[in-house]
C-alpha cells in the first residue's frame, strides 16, 4: 500500500557507467576521443562523396544518409555522457529524458530503413544489373531516403507520448548512461501494456519487414554470386557488397542483443555494454569499413587528400 502513495518522479538521475571517481577523467577522455573520431570519420565520408562526382550514385547517396544517422545518434547521447563525467551532474528532467529517447529511437529506425534501402540497392546492382538505373534512379534513391527519415521520425512519436504519461515512483535512478525504453520501464509504476503493444505492433509493421528485405536481398545476392563461373568474377561481385554486409551484420547483431530478446533475459550491465557498442563503436567502424573495403571511396579519398589549394593574392 505504501508504494501507491510514493511521489511521482519528474526528474531522473542517470546511473552512468562507473561510480569510481579516479576512473571518471580517463573515461571522459576516452569518450571525448571516441566522439571526435565519430564526427571526423563520418564527416570525412560525407565530404569525400560530395567532392567526387563519380560517387554521386544511389549507393553513396544512401551512405551519406547512413553517416548522418550515425552522427545524429552519437550526438544525441555522448554530449550528455561527457557532461555527466566532467561535472558529476547526473540529473535529467522527464522532458529531456523522453526527448533523448525519442531521437535515439527515431535515428535508430531511420538507420534500419537506410540499411534496407542499401541492401536493395546491392541486390538490384548484382542480380539485375541491366535494370539498375531503372529501379535505382536518382528519384527512387531520394524517395528511399526521404521515406526512411520520415517514417523514422514519425514512428516513435507514440512511444514518446505514452512514455511521458507514465508514472515513475519506483525509483528516480535510471540504471543506464542515457534514457532508453527498457531502463525507464523498469522504474515505472504504471501499466506499460499499451507501450509494449505499440512496440510489438510497430516492430511487426516496420522493423521485421525491413530486416526481411535486408536478409533476403543478401540471400539472392549470395545465390547469384555463387552462380558466376569464374572465381575472379565472383570476387569482383562480392567486393561490391562486402562493406555494407559487414556494417549490416554488426548493426543487427547489436540490435538483436538489445531489443529482439526478452527483457528479463538481459541484465542491465549487458544492456549497457551492447548500448556502448551501438552508440560508440559502430558509428566509428562504419566509415572505416567503407574506406578500407571500398576501392572507389579509397580512390576518392586519395584524390581529395592530394588536392592542393592555392590562395589567390588579394
Question: What distinguishing features does this structure have?
Answer:
single chain, 314 residues, mainly alpha, Rhopdopsin 7-helix transmembrane proteins, 72% helix, globular, disordered N terminus
CATH structural class:
Mainly Alpha
Percent helix:
over 70%
Class from helix and strand fractions: mainly alpha
CA gyration radius, whole angstroms: 22 Å
By DSSP, the count of extended strands is 3
CATH architecture classification name: Up-down Bundle
How many strands, which pairing sense, and closed or not: the largest β-sheet?
A: 3 strands, mixed
The rounded distance between the terminal residues' Cα atoms is 80 Å
SSE succession: EHHEHHHHEHHHHHH
Q: How many helices?
A: 12
Q: Mind telling me the CATH superfamily name? A: Rhodopsin 7-helix transmembrane proteins
Spatial strand sequence of the major β-sheet: 2-1-3
- Stretches with pLDDT under 50, minimum 5 residues: 1-5, 308-314
Choose one word for the global shape: globular
Strand content: under 5%
Overall tally of structural domains: 1
The CATH topology is Rhopdopsin 7-helix transmembrane proteins
Average pLDDT level: 88
- State the oligomer: single chain
Amino acid at each position: 500500500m505504501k508504494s501507491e502513495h510514493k511521489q511521482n518522479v519528474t526528474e531522473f538521475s542517470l546511473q552512468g557507467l562507473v561510480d569510481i571517481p579516479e576512473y571518471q577523467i580517463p573515461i571522459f577522455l576516452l569518450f571525448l576521443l571516441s566522439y571526435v573520431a565519430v564526427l571526423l570519420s563520418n564527416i570525412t565520408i560525407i565530404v569525400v562523396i560530395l567532392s567526387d562526382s563519380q560517387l554521386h550514385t544511389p549507393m553513396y547517396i544512401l551512405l551519406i544518409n547512413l553517416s548522418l544517422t550515425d552522427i545524429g545518434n552519437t550526438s544525441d547521447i555522448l554530449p550528455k555522457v561527457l557532461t555527466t563525467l566532467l561535472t558529476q551532474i547526473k540529473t535529467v528532467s522527464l522532458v529531456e529524458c523522453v526527448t533523448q529517447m525519442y531521437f535515439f529511437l527515431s535515428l535508430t529506425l531511420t538507420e534500419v530503413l537506410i540499411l534496407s534501402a542499401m541492401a536493395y540497392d546491392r541486390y538490384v546492382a548484382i542480380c539485375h544489373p541491366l535494370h539498375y538505373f531503372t529501379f535505382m534512379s536518382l528519384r527512387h534513391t531520394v524517395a528511399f531516403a526521404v521515406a526512411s527519415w520520415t517514417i523514422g521520425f514519425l514512428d516513435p512519436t507514440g512511444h514518446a507520448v505514452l512514455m511521458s504519461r507514465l508514472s515513475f515512483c519506483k525509483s528516480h535512478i535510471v540504471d543506464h548512461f542515457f534514457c532508453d525504453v527498457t531502463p525507464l520501464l523498469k522504474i515505472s509504476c504504471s501499466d506499460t501494456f499499451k507501450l509494449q503493444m505499440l512496440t510489438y505492433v510497430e516492430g511487426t509493421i516496420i522493423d521485421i519487414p525491413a530486416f526481411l528485405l535486408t536478409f533476403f536481398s543478401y540471400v539472392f545476392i549470395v545465390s547469384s554470386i555463387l552462380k558466376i563461373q569464374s572465381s575472379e568474377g565472383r570476387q569482383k561481385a562480392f567486393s561490391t557488397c562486402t562493406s555494407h554486409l559487414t556494417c549490416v551484420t554488426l548493426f543487427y547483431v547489436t540490435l538483436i542483443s538489445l531489443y529482439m530478446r526478452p527483457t528479463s533475459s538481459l541484465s542491465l550491465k549487458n544492456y549497457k555494454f551492447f548500448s556502448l557498442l551501438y552508440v560508440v563503436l559502430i558509428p566509428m567502424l562504419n566509415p572505416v569499413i567503407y574506406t578500407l573495403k571500398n576501392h572507389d571511396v579509397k580512390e576518392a579519398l586519395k584524390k581529395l587528400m592530394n588536392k592542393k589549394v592555392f590562395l589567390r593574392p588579394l
